[in-house]
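Re-running the complex after MR caught last week's input typo. The corrected sequence lines follow. Everything else is unchanged.
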Amino acid sequence: MIVEAGAFALILALGLSIVQVALSVAGRLRRSAALAGAGEGAALAAFIAVATAFAALMHAFVVSDFSVANVAANSHTEKPLLYRVAGTWGSHEGSMLLWCLALTGFGAAAAGLGRTLPRGIRSMTVATQGVLGSVFLAYTVFASNPLLRVIAPPVEGRSLNPLLQDPALAVHPPFLYAGYVGMSVVFSLAVAALIEGRIDAAWSRWVRPWALAAWSLLTVGITLGAFWAYYELGWGGWWFWDPVENASFMPWLIATALLHSAVVTEKRGALAGWTVFLALAAFTFSMLGAFLVRSGVLTSVHAFAVDPTRGVLLLIILGVTSGLAFTLFAWRAPSLAQGGLFAPISRESALVLNNILLAAATMTVLLGTLYPLIREAMTGESISVGPPFFSLTFVPFMAALLVLVPAGPLLAWKRGDARGVVQRLWVAVLIAAGVALLTVALVSPRKALGAVGVGLGGWLVAGAVTEIVERTRAFRVPAAETWRRMTGLPRGAWGMTLAHLGLGVFVMGAVFETAWKVEAAEALQQGGALNIGAYHVTLDGVRPVAGPNYDADQATMTVTRDGRPICQVKPERRLYTAGGQTTSEVGICYRGASHIYLVLGERRDGGAATAWLVRAYWNPWASLIFLGPVIMALGGLVSLSDRRLRMGVGRRREQPA
Amino acid sequence: MRLRALLAALAGVACLAAASDPAERLPDPAQEAQAREIFRDVRCLVCQNESIDDSEADLAHDLRQIVREQVKAGRSEAQIKAFLTERYGEFVLLTPGFNLGNLALWGGPFVVVLAGLMLLTIRLRKPGPEAELDPAEAARVQRLIEDETA
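Corrected-run output:
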């Protein structure tokens, strides 16, 4: 009964979304506040309806109602509650429902929070959001309905992939999807502004909070995914340039570019056309991501949505919505105002360079992901594009960008003073050079490129601190004055500093870990040991343990350094009985920011005694890789709380259209 | 990331850096390091986007053995890669070749940079907007003021 109510609510949501479009457009055409207000009401109602459907599906998962096809295919009675709940979005159908939930949620939020927008833009934003909602809800209802029943319910479900049964991955999709779909509001605002023919500083200010929120959520989502890959897959890597990772990375890069170009449009009225273009591109890349992951075009053997008709449907949705939006852009963009002038050395130029490099970086990821498909379709030859390609293309572009980052915020608008910037940054230059030289001197084996990379991270961190020191005139005026200036700084400035600082922390961790990780593997008997870096790892023993839905061999390993015990970890090798899959649960020993990463491999019988393959990694500074993006996302949140972005709160008077 | 997980599970094994298995190693550490270097650029043909350095599949094991034997026989990295390409096609290498067919792949990002720089240069050279507002702009300013104060 609950399931039927959910299925009904889903269809109702589709109807409400269509009504939302009709009412909002009618409200705009007739300049009727009542009709437009009804459209906003429909947006809220559509969200409530999708939330009801979502709750119904979640209930079916929690109570293991195997008469629902999707539950039977993706759940199991023995699964712990958290993973039964997470199973709601663990399948194609469920994740599309989550996508719709986020889409209507953002639609309702845009309708509710957009009260300071001029009425025309507000109506058209709600209408565009309604179009997106209708299209994706129609897809969910007709092609990918998660609430369909089966005629003969099985006694037991087929369970969720055990690798996905993990706390980080349980919350990874909601963050990622909220980030992807958050870009839809930016997209809708851009479409509305193009229709209304007004793209200016004020528009840019409305776009920024949504872009910031979506960017922060996406940052968290991607980081959770990378962290999960790091400790769950058991090979010590955190980024593989896998098509699915690239799919989530492209919208992030575009959103990052958008955040920077929107500042130029807001402060100087320039780059309006480019900012709108990015606003449209961000959600287009989100949809492309959904298409790539869900359609299965990138893989031949793969279990997700192998149904090609669904892939084609998603591609049509992507082509039509983005195609229409970009056509509108091509038609309207030439009429956009050009905005203020700026000199070659100016903050505007720096931000344009930032955008050029981010666009080029996005292009490398896009080509690296899609080019093999294109080439195969055109010539029939298949090629592979793997991590070495990205190291040769993406990394140099990003490195060039990172060199510029600390200079940007110190340049003045319109006409900057290059010498002044150099003067203000010389301390940061010294710190960066010092970090690089120290790395060369202290870390063995000596790696010049690695040291330069770590120095680059130091440059970003020192640059971010310099920016705050400059703004508060610290060390040059009395402490009280610095404090006054510090508390007076807008949150947006703090947010930017934090984001750049987090980037530096990430770069240091990523470079150090990649350049100096050490790997060792031995077949060990009980009591056997291996050396990894300066550490000595002993396999104390292996014993069987039983989990809620798996059987495992659990090893006890002791790590010592110069004979002193450091820590004891218990990595496991699990066999999930429901699906017959094996996974490994790694043991990580945290030493400051570095990790000793231990994996229990397969059992080797034969010979004198049973041995186990033990793999050990020394991942120096690995924690920074995940800490950096957390600081960046925090920067996004701090910036989001800036009161300048909430301008007009408390002034709820209706505005003439 | 999820795709990788599914594939890993499909293979029925937890994916580990398989190449580090002590049973397969070459006795000479320098040669072993060279072999590992090559592994990272060779695709496990039956796996999804995995190098033979990572994969536990049988084919990856065989390919590793071939590479190790050739390294041991003193063949250079280029020779070994040429041998693999001869046998399995360009698909086997994870770094796409610098050839005409891949021109767009390698050149695309640079085109973006060049186009961007060109547009920036044009923008920097354009004469400034009139100091006086034309009527349309004045109307826009008026509308903005109304938005802010209404």
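None of the earlier attempt is carried over here. Chain A has a mean pLDDT of 87. Chain A touches chain B through 85 residues (CB under 8 Å).
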